[in-house]
Amino acid sequence: MGRKWNNIKEKKASKDANTSRIYAKFGREIYVAAKQGEPNPESNQALKVVLERAKTYSVPKHIIDRAIEKAKGGSEENYDELRYEGFGPNGSMVIVDALTNNVNRTASEVRAAFGKNGGNMGVSGSVAYMFDATAVIGLDGKTADDVLEILMEADVDARDIFEEEDTVIIYAEPDQFHAVQEALKNSGVTDFTVAELTMLPQSDVTLSADTLAQFEKMIDALEELEDVQQVYHNVDITE
């Protein structure tokens, strides 16, 4: 499990180093969530999830407020939620989630990012079955036993709880995201080091140094696309 968490941690560190890009992506995601339901996180669970995630990336309040106000203002800007699946070298698998107002443009750009970097697009369902949708929540200041006791007392289920470098990591079903956070908040936890809804691979693959470099170039090319929100893969990048 630790290797999968390391992949998430490396991905988060990479995003933290590209703040303007990640803020823009969160702005779009917040707008879409607010527009699809009530622009109030207390009554809009999708918006609440996005805002909890944004908090762990220190997204500025003015960006959050601007996106919500845009949704309140009845903007006619609409986005389609798309998922692409593809393959990299030596059994590597990739999932790309996008929000776009131009489906043809996004499909073309994603296909090009795969093709120019040794990968290729697959059909819908060709990759996703090898991943599990998972809520990942991390916190400092408690042990795994502490967290297990808190969740048991709150009658909240977790898939796995473990410690990694003084951080407790919780894997849970996506529909338990809020329940896990609320149980921990009620026990005194105020900050989370990670709060993500992600796709975890059921198994990892390891690439040679040269192949890994090419694969990371492909992932970077995908993540740099304006319409791409999230990229998931099954490669161990911590070797």
From TrEMBL:
Pfam families listed in its UniProt record: TACO1_YebC_N (PF20772), Transcrip_reg (PF01709)
Domain TACO1/YebC-like N-terminal stretches: 3-74
Alphabetically ordered keywords of this record: Cytoplasm, DNA-binding, Transcription, Transcription regulation
Compartments, record wording: Cytoplasm
InterPro entries: Integrase-like_N (IPR017856), TACO1_YebC-like_2nd/3rd_dom (IPR048300), TACO1_YebC_N (IPR049083), Transcrip_reg_TACO1-like (IPR002876), Transcrip_reg_TACO1-like_dom3 (IPR026564), Transcrip_reg_TACO1_YeeN (IPR026562), YebC-like (IPR029072)
Matches recorded under SUPFAM superfamilies: YebC-like (SSF75625)
Domain TACO1/YebC-like second and third: residue ranges: 79-235
Main location as per UniProt: cytoplasm
Gene Ontology MF annotations: DNA binding
Similarity-based family: Belongs to the TACO1 family. YeeN subfamily.
Matches recorded under HAMAP family: Transcrip_reg_TACO1, Transcrip_reg_TACO1_YeeN
UniProt name for this protein: Probable transcriptional regulatory protein WAK64_20120
Source organism of this protein record: Bacillus spongiae
